[in-house]
Amino acid sequence: MKELVVISGKGGTGKTTVVGAFASLAQDAVLADCDVDAANLHLLLAPEVLETHEFSGGKKAVVDAARCTACGTCEELCRFGGPRSGGLNDEGLPAPFTIDPIACEGCGVCARFCPENAIALEEVVNGQWFVSSTRFGQLVHARLGIAEENSGKLVSLVRAKSREVARQSGSSIVLVDGSPGVGCPVIASLTGASAALIVTEPTLSAQHDLQRIGELTRHFGLPALVCINKHDINPRQAEEVSQAAEQDGMRVVGSVRYDPAVTAAMLQGLSVTEYTDEGASEDLRRLWAEVLKSLAALPQRHEVQSNPGGVTE
Amino acid sequence: MEEPNAHIFLKPRLESSRAVAIPVPEVNASRCTGCGECGKMCQYGAIVVVKETVLTFPALCNGCGGCTLVCPEKAITEVAHEIGVIEEGRAGRLRFTHGVLKVGEARATPIIRELVGSAACLTVVMDAPPGTSCPVIESVRTADFVLLVTEPTPFGLNDLALAVGMVRELKKPFAVVLNRADAGDERVLDYCAEERIAVALQIPDSRETAEAYSRGELAAQTIPGYRDQMALLYEHVAQEMYA
Questions:
Q1: What's the whole-model pTM score?
Q2: Under CATH, what is the fold of the domain A58-124?
Q3: Using a CB-CB distance cutoff of 8 angstroms, which residues of chain B are in contact with residue A269?
């Protein structure tokens, strides 16, 4: 089984458009949307949800107001600005502390060192993940609650589940729509995958991002393929991006022209390869063929397995 | 922090650079008795005790200091672990500062926290990361006003609704800028009308702007009319912010 992760550095370069097209072109892919912060793939795939699960990304500290003596130890020890003094109550006595759930990182220092044992760490549900069926195969996706953290953990869970689904259904490839940036959710999208396809643009800023994301794939020993989207916006820059990518040990496997059909397809909830056979659609078909060739040529060690133990972690 | 780009357009002259580090544990093996209290304390798996040997994983550490506090033998000290840098300089009349996360490091929030804390000007304009999770929250938490930039497409609408949920949760005043306003459909504008959200500016789709962007040019400097639109937008925001 192969696992291809599509990433971009910055958002808005066309990552999900590429995954949507690949989904329609692949024969037996399992799809995973790991952009759990701002998932979009479902907008092209119109999933029918088969399973819904709750996700707990961690714990938050909660104060038992009846036991709190407002001593302030929690505030003194917390490094994240979580505890808030309650000020004075109506009788002019110190009111109990509260903990700002957005600032709290769930480290448990306040709970451990509260002299009154008035603080508990409570497991919080901060997202949901789903297994769905779509017209192109099964999709594993997720929704992180607003202002919630630990998206990296949710990404790992979505990937593990999608491999499991692929194993059960005998699929040979998992297509992962990754997250933007180079931080925790992207690292969680990449580690242990077969290869990354980086969708970039012929812009100075995208070239800068590509350099950093290329450094990240190298850091994790992952083969990096590159696709230049909207290459005809600035052909000279596209050439430079291409040369810089090759110099950094990445392989440019194709480019896609600027085409209003991409937006037109999206407005109808279709992948561009379903919408038309011409223009960007033609480029994407060629790109998919190249990607398959590159994946097939990878050494055996780039095969991935699903965890027989399931997806508990 | 993860993919900083503003410097490409503003071309600042960077004058200083300083490292941002988080405190991570270092265990003094000669004092450690392998009691396991630190491993029980840590919620992130950054310090683990296996058969009386302590292993630390700095990349997972959140820098809470719990292990150091809880160790009965005082065998743990905190050492600085560098996760990125903050660079400062000037771009014309503007002071410029940005953070750069070391590639391979997972968490940008400590850099953002430091960056926000050090930006001491009358008006601070922040280019925030995408999405709605930790790094974005950290950027928005101390802001006086938030501009949400989106596109008139299903993707744009989906992500806008998430971002609106976030700024409402954080109780921040905000407005929407609709980029490539004529490239899609009416759904984003309908949503904004329904939710009574101000659309501060609509920028038409333009290949010329995309080309200028690709060359690292500021559209406000090279595209006729763009500067006036940005001036109007700034006025709108300033009025809301200082009202």
A1: 0.87
A2: Alpha-Beta Plaits (3.30.70)
A3: 154
